[in-house]
Amino acid sequence: MRHNGRVPRTLAVANQKGGVAKTTTVATLGAALGELGQRVLLVDLDPQACLTFSVGIDPEDLDKSIHHVLLGGVKARDVLVEFDDAPDLVPATIELANAEVQLARESSPEQALRTALRPLRSSYDWIIVDCPPTLGLLTVNGLSAASDVLIPLQCETLAHRGVGQLLDTVHDVQQLTNPSLRVLGVLPTLYDGRTTHARAVLETIADTYSLDVLQPAIPKSIRFAEAPAIGETVLSTAPASPGAKAYRALAGALLH
Ligand code: ADP
Ligand code: MG
Question: What ipTM does the predicted assembly reach?
Fold first, then answer.
């Protein structure tokens, strides 16, 4: 089911907490949508460039990246890394760490990504943006460019502590730059459903903030650690694993 001639769904994957599987979700969900015949573009908005690394690109080898697109007038198409059998990538490099200060001096600094991606939109069904673990201008750019925000959440005590702040930022973006931004929901990650604790935390968060909980939860599995080091996702390194199945099921659910 392609969005023929329609605008792509643009998902911002955001949570200012690190280590909640944002990058893993972008790479794996993107690959799973690709398996379903969708044309997918991944965008690395994190100066740590973990997404770029995890698809097998060494940022040190890149002359130009998202940083030059946001600030240097370079076209997104000119930094695009295209793959035959995996989603395309707009890569990041460490230079992006300075971008927030420089962007803040531009006019409409929160709209830079949206503007930069516009010429690419007709080439994709899905654009998935990996936000950094902050609520600064880069994440605001991701949210401003998005149709939907997906919030990966590790279901532990205190996991909810940043959720209110993140939703405040989403509301600011809805008011200021992107009224049609929707919160798709929270995605339970690193989930151990055997513990009643994880389920209880999840229910509390969903109730407190009136958020949808996306299904299925992504199970905690050691298999996730291996894949990025070789530029792959669990879909190829452990195709029959519960984690791979969960991301495939999530991709299927998002298409319907
Ligand atoms: P973030 O982008 O939010 O900082 P990452 O996607 O980089 O988070 O994930 C943080 C760490 O957790 C990585 O080492 C990753 O391999 C691991 N990880 C991600 N998802 C899972 C999972 N479902 N089970 C176990 N480990 C996971
Ligand atoms: Mg990350």
Answer: 0.99
